5-methylthioadenosine/S-adenosylhomocysteine deaminase (Aliikangiella coralliicola), 444 residues
Amino acid sequence: MQIDSREQNIEQIITADWLIPMNQANHWLEHHAIVITGNKITDILHRDQAIDKYPQAPITTLNGQVLMPGFVNSHCHAAMNLLRGLSDDLPLKEWLEQAIWPVEAQFVDDTFVYQGTQHAIAEMIRSGTTCFQDMYFMPNQIAKAAQESGIRANIGLVVVEFETSWAKNAQECIDKGLDVFDQFKHSNTINFNFAPHAPYTVSKNTLEKLGTLSNELNLTLQIHVHETANEVESFVAEHGIRPLARLKEIGLLSPLLNAVHMTQLNEGEIEWLAESACHVIHCPQSNMKLASGVCPTIHLIEAGVNLAIGTDGAASNNDLDMIDETRSASLLAKLDYLNPTALTAYQSLYAATMGGAKAMGLQEKIGSLEVGKAADIIAIDLNRIETQPVYNPISQIVYAASRDQVTNVWVNGKQLLKDRELSTLNSPLILQHAQNWRHKIINR
């Protein structure tokens, strides 16, 4: 389980009490070390062997902590961090049309998106997220913020039919999005996807066009679909077909599709998803808070559908905490199926790491700790009153740990969080920007 490192300059060794590779169910290693060379994992071995084999390498020793792959937040609207708590306790349609969209129309610009994304990235890094998939306006500003911070991102080239501060119509959304893709396409940490908002806001013709581009450029396509019963019923009333059937009709069901929310599914639709190797992005807390419904996670997994987990935006969640989201996914499934064995701790943790990597087509690079993969690693301190004693570090993370126990984060071999302190972002400035935006919005 190693790459020949004799001629390489070993940069660092990280050791901890536990290591969860996420490449084998319910499996962890004790007192092991990860060797990082450049931006990749080049060896995984017992800590004593690592010290003997690489005597000149600097060592980071994390007693009482666990190393695992970073969380992959498979769906969020990062810049909406600036709208956290603006409007709560409303159904989705009313929340969007009366509270969110009017404020976005007035305030969303380059500065809003850049500063809001910085805020979200800071929260995600401090929560152990090393990669996020976004869907919002001004993808150029999202890419800029992500690249500066060092986090890995799969950025949505958002498409809607109506005029926004980003583009006048769907075609301009596509054209401007492709320009951003060209600008950052050689980045090692920035990837892109097409992000039509939903079947009810994007026309059939535009979806067909995006399907063609997605296949030509091998870019994934994420879309909100079957989020609420009202959405499905309204679409059927207007078009005579369910939204997922529309996507199937125009050829969008494929391994490139990331179907977000999916709370309203029947058996036939689950079979379509499985046969087409689509990915489902589960956002349990947002769906619960908006009373949108429950994604049938166990039926999807049993059918062979890859399940990933996302937080959705902080305006509807109201946080970007993947540890808590993973816990919610497991608990919600157990309640929904009235089965305590449903969506085990490992299954949820897999969805929050490798499941997300697969959804984005990044499974060869991230999602597990394996030799040859990118060094996207987090450390979680379990040596706390709240998480002791440790019999099973996987269940302890999912059912007991909190995000403030994330101590260190590396992305692509670069340390972004060290002993709870951000290395690449200015926390006081981010807080000041958030307060400035609050002042503008409440005094509008």
Q: What stands out?
A: The radius of gyration is 21 Å. Confidence is low (pLDDT under 50) at residues 2-7.
